[in-house]
Amino acid sequence: MLLRTIQVNNLRCFERLDLILGKKNTIISGGNGTGKTTALEAFSLVCQGKSFVSNRSGDIIRRGAPGASVIASGETTTADPLSIRVRKKGAKTEIFLNGKPVKKASELATSAPVIVITSHAATLLTEGPGNRRALLDKTLFHVEPDYVEEFKKYRRALRQRNQLIRGRSLRKIHRAWNEQLILVGEEIDRKREDIVLRLNAELKSKAVSKFFGELYFRYMPGWDREKGYRFCLSQAWEKDAQLGYTTVGPHRADLALCDKNGPVARNLSGGQSKFLVSFVLCSLTKYIFEKTAKKTLVLVDDIAAELDDVFISSVLNMLLRQEGQVVLTSIRPMELADFSKNADAVLQLD
């Protein structure tokens, strides 16, 4: 996907904003309070149907306006014309793709890969495992045609098993749902692990090793692999019955960034964490492109926050090597070195 223009209506501070994007690299510049993050938020809305800042429509609609909308035009990976319109009104979201309504935001999100790097990026390594699982799953939604359905099947079987557990049903009734969990869960696990292996290969690159030595992700599938998912699911029955939910499976998986001495995430500075998360996200866009030829839209808010000059230069070099479009914000674009020189458009917000 390639975005050419974007029109923003009644989004936060903007009554109306029109932007013409560069084909590859775009810088959105302006002082504090000029709406740079809101401009990036508009890209997120029009490509994913949701904001990366807030899930509450009331937070993003300009005060006094009945609703907000974002309209984008561009072209698909096959150079066909593309138009997207997303409208927020109250709790309702309306999405139109080439003039036709889209029922679910997930349909829009899976067609157009988007990653967002913000000042909060570092928390991906230290907060709960849900966001790390989601990172793997969102990547798989793009590269594996059947993964969305497999994921839905697993969630459905998990809900049914949990309902039966809470209803104190006989253990034999659970066997059918256990089989579904095992069948789909093991496939989800296999595909997630493939991505982790790819990330670990990328982490061996000089771009990372020159700063941190040898790093790797330890993947924990959500059960003891040596014993097997079937055995662990059976063994957890009494504990699950007491707690009222299923305690083993892909929904309990996690990733831990490690060196030779063990997990390192909580020992890293904010700048180090942001650099590593940026590296991981850029590696995933590369993986998506190699597998599908889909070009990812990369949104970067306040690139300089928490990063020293060396890390800024390294991240900017990563962004310049991206296959898709990059849109980043900066108070001082001329400090972005080679990225500024290679920008197709520098858009000034006042």
Describe the structure concisely for a colleague:
With 350 residues, this protein is of the alpha/beta class. It has twelve helices and 14 strands.
Architecture overview:
The protein has 350 residues and is α/β, with parallel strands linked by helices. The protein has 2 domains: 2-113 and 294-348, Rossmann fold (3-Layer(aba) Sandwich), CATH 3.40.50; 125-265, Glutathione S-transferase Yfyf (Class Pi), Chain A, domain 2. Helices cover 42% and strands 22% of the residues. It has helices at 36-48, 57-60, 105-111, 130-143, 147-166, 175-202, 206-212, 229-235, 237-243, 270-292, 309-320, 337-341; strands at 2-11, 14-20, 25-29, 68-75, 81-89, 92-97, 100-102, 114-117, 216-220, 254-259, 262-263, 297-300, 326-330, 345-348. The protein has a 6-stranded antiparallel sheet with strand order 2-1-4-5-6-7. Strands 8-12-13-3-14 form a 5-stranded parallel sheet, with helices on both faces. A 3-stranded antiparallel sheet has the order 9-10-11. Helix 4 crosses helix 6 (175-202), helix 5 packs across helix 6 (175-202) and helix 10 (270-292) runs parallel beside helix 11. The longest helix is centred in the middle third of the chain and has 28 residues, at 175-202.
